[in-house]
Write a structure and sequence with these properties.
Oligomer: single chain
CATH architecture of the largest domain: Sandwich
Strand order of the largest sheet: 1-2-12-9-14-6-5-3
Organism: Rhizophagus irregularis (strain DAOM 181602 / DAOM 197198 / MUCL 43194)
Distance between the termini: 28 Å
InterPro entries: DIOX_N, IPNS-like_FE2OG_OXY, IPNS-like_sf, Iron_ascorbate_oxido_reductase, Oxoglu/Fe-dep_dioxygenase_dom
Order of helices and strands: EHEHHHEEEHHEEEEEEEHEEEEEEHEE
CATH topology of the largest domain: Jelly Rolls
Shape: globular
Strand content: 15-25%
Number of strands: 20
Helix content: 25-40%
Keywords: Iron, Membrane, Metal-binding, Oxidoreductase, Transmembrane, Transmembrane helix
Family: Belongs to the iron/ascorbate-dependent oxidoreductase family.
Pfam families: 2OG-FeII_Oxy, DIOX_N
Number of domains: 2
Structural class: alpha+beta
Length: 381
């Protein structure tokens, strides 16, 4: 059921089909660059369409979601939560809730499918999927369906990266090699709030609390034209309607950072106060673990040497940083990368700081200095 109390927002729909051809025309390349630039600087959210998306069987994917989430709780809960690297496995009702809101959803996380019995990985963000005994219960085709969708949506992400290259006039593809091995896909089931009225909870209910995504790109497939995703735009919450033959793309905090905040990482949430269950498949796409992506563009007040300005989510940001306005930040840092760190402790400290601030206080993106080191967290709306 649509959320009648909220107005739908009219977001750009960008056709990337030309990038799938061997020799796209200059006119198409210019069009895509211009449309991406406008979408990212005005909203931070847009739809994409292309031939590759049309090849995705959404009905089959939704059936796979329904098969899993309809399993008895004891079976789902038996799937271990793998926290090495990014979390993989089953997340039960309220598993990601903060202190203020009960998130009425379930999730199943998985990522790149490695060869059988692989135990040694190249970095701390890689790791095996946790299938448990699901293949025996749901069948081999169920697992194949999920892996096929992962591979296809990664290809869509790479098309978006190509479009960003055009808009920003910078090479990004080289910084994303291997990014598929640390990216993460989550299947979500959002329940109508009335279905959990028997759960004792003093907190207000919501599908997903207001937050920004701290990564590079997020691709959201709202299955079966379901509603519920909203962005905070022009000081109000707006519905992001599901559109046939398209997928929603969100800019993440990391992409916003490397563009000095010119590309917006939008505050968004999910509500589901209707009568129907809602399913979505969300890919959190990341660049290479050791990518060194230069900050893009000049600061308004000082010269910007791109050869010495590279930024990461995970490595220490020890140089000076100060706000220039609510949407843009300034950074003085010589050499940083996406995943390279000095120790495991630093990664988990940063990770839990981000999660803690997001879930507890529903903050927007900001910088938190700790012992002279600046970590990326969330700042209050």
């Amino acid at each position: 059921m649509p959320n009648s109390s909220y107005k739908p927002i009219s977001l750009p729909v960008i056709d990337l089909s030309a990038l799938e051809t061997p020799s796209p025309s200059k006119a198409d390349l210019n069009r895509i660059a211009n449309e991406i630039q406008i979408a990212c600087t005005k909203y931070g959210v847009f739809y994409i369409t292309c031939s590759s998306f049309n090849a995705i069987d959404q009905t089959l994917l939704k059936e796979a979601c329904q098969q899993f989430f309809s399993l008895p709780s004891n079976i789902k809960s038996s799937i271990p939560i793998k926290s090495g690297g990014f979390t993989r496995g089953y997340i039960g009702m309220g598993g990601e809730s903060g202190s203020q809101l009960l998130e009425v959803k379930e999730a199943f996380s998985y990522g790149y499918e490695w060869e059988n019995n692989k135990t040694k990985f190249e970095n701390l963000l890689q790791g095996p999927n946790e299938w448990g005994n699901l293949e025996n219960i749901l069948g081999r085709e169920w697992r194949i369906t999920l892996n096929q969708y992962y591979n296809k949506v990664i290809l869509l992400s790479e098309l978006v990266v190509r479009s960003l290259e055009l808009a920003l006039n910078i090479e990004l593809k080289q910084h994303c090699v291997g990014g598929e091995t640390i990216s993460l896909l989550r299947l979500f089931k959002y329940l109508p709030y009335k279905e959990i009225d028997n759960i004792k909870c003093e907190n207000e209910r919501i599908g997903s609390s207001p937050h920004t995504d701290w990564g590079f790109l997020t691709l959201v497939l709202q299955l079966d034209n379901s509603q519920g995703l909203q962005i905070f735009y022009d000081n109000q919450w707006c519905d992001v309607p599901s559109k046939p033959a398209s997928i929603v793309v969100n800019c993440g905090d990391y992409l916003s950072l490397i563009t000095h905040g010119k590309y917006i990482s939008p505050l968004h949430r999910v509500i589901n106060d209707g009568t129907n269950e809602r399913y979505s498949a969300v890919l959190f796409y990341y660049p290479s673990y050791d990518a060194k992506i230069p900050l893009i563009g000049n600061n308004e007040e000082e010269e910007f040497d791109l050869s010495k300005k590279e930024l990461s989510i995970f490595k220490d940001q020890t140089a000076h940083c100060k706000e220039s306005n609510a949407k843009a930040r300034r950074y003085d840092k010589k050499d940083t990368c996406f995943g390279e760190v000095g120790s495991i402790i630093k990664i988990f400290l940063i990770y839990f700081l981000i999660i803690y601030w997001k879930l507890k206080n529903h903050y927007l993106f900001s910088i938190l200095p700790i012992n002279g080191i600046k970590f990326f967290v969330i700042e209050k709306q």
